[in-house]
């Protein structure tokens, strides 16, 4: 019998094939991602999966496996209570025109969502409600495991989301489970896609601030005794467990001004401020944010003024500035307060987080000069001219000359004369 010899190239090919096979086989003991599924024409992610000995049999993949006898379970909660924040998010490979969605109960008919809503988006940076598709105290069908939700107008979307805020119980145990999620849909036309993109773009996005925390020294106009419980250090101790509280006043003084001042060592480019509260008790009603370069004079930040600020269950309050503000000081000025249960008006905040980053030298110079113009101070940088102010034909000659005085000459005498002329001119108007 002749022995066949394998060439070097054949041996290399076999070795490569074995290597590729090894790479495609999951390693022993490799953990399955129970929250993510890549399907045919979509990706799907769920908020959580129950963590127990059978979790691989309760994973997200069973929502789209076509098997009505498998099921997905969301995670257990430490406390057995109905409220939750769970979701299932679909990302379609191509934009779909969804006509309806079907939620199939698990084989036991238990733990169907009790309070939920369907939303859509094109970019997954906002949840846009689908009209008529929000449900409270929902009771699933007794005749069929399939609960069909048909939309009055088909939804054109790249992302489709089921958000569950309340679970149902079996006995005294609250859980969330579904066997299948299926869609009735067709591919969207180019015209429908354009219309969906325009509708998505028109939705106001929630304000977010992702910039780093700016180190500041925090002071306040007052605090409630005892200081260890309600003092100013609580505003920047890194936890919402402790709160600052202003002195309380009676009902006749609800409009007395209260302030919190955040001061940095060097000028910073502030992009906004995040305020945290506990239960929103006595959170400011009317307030605005101001900036300063000296800590004694303040200028309102454009677009950062709030009247009759509405509260929700959210205790994180994000105030992103329309335009980042370069300054050394940021002040929260409260002009109207809320009353506590005893009728006393005060301000209560758990934490303040000024956010932003370092500015350029040009940005500092420009902001300083804008501040000095606004506060009627001499410019600290004579090489940066303030924006000219239009002058009417009836203004006195002296006032007309205020906008072009010797600001750029760098001579102290010229600066003093210019300041005197400008003030005189303003008085003549």
Task: Please tell me about this protein's structure.
This protein is an alpha+beta fold. It folds into three domains: 36-201, Jelly Rolls; 217-361, Galactose-binding domain-like (Jelly Rolls), CATH 2.60.120.260; 388-428, no CATH class. The chain has helices at 8-24, 190-201, 227-230, 361-374, 397-400, 412-428, and strands at residues 36-39, 42-46, 72-73, 83-104, 115-121, 128-135, 146-166, 168-170, 173-175, 177-178, 180-187, 217-220, 244-245, 258-276, 286-292, 299-306, 316-336, 338-339, 345-346, 348-349, 351-357. Strands 1, 2, 4, 5, 6, 7 and 11 form a seven-stranded antiparallel β-sheet that branches. Strands 12, 14, 15, 16, 17 and 21 form a six-stranded antiparallel β-sheet that branches. The chain has a two-stranded antiparallel sheet with strand order 3-10. The protein is elongated. The termini are far apart.
Structural descriptors:
429 residues; alpha+beta; Jelly Rolls; seven-stranded antiparallel β-sheet; six-stranded antiparallel β-sheet; 6 helices; 21 strands; disordered N terminus
Give the topology:
Elements: H1 8-24, E1 36-39, E2 42-46, E3 72-73, E4 83-104, E5 115-121, E6 128-135, E7 146-166, E8 168-170, E9 173-175, E10 177-178, E11 180-187, H2 190-201, E12 217-220, H3 227-230, E13 244-245, E14 258-276, E15 286-292, E16 299-306, E17 316-336, E18 338-339, E19 345-346, E20 348-349, E21 351-357, H4 361-374, H5 397-400, H6 412-428
Antiparallel strand pairs: 1-2, 2-4, 3-10, 4-7, 4-11, 5-6, 5-7, 8-9, 12-14, 13-20, 14-17, 14-21, 15-16, 15-17, 18-19
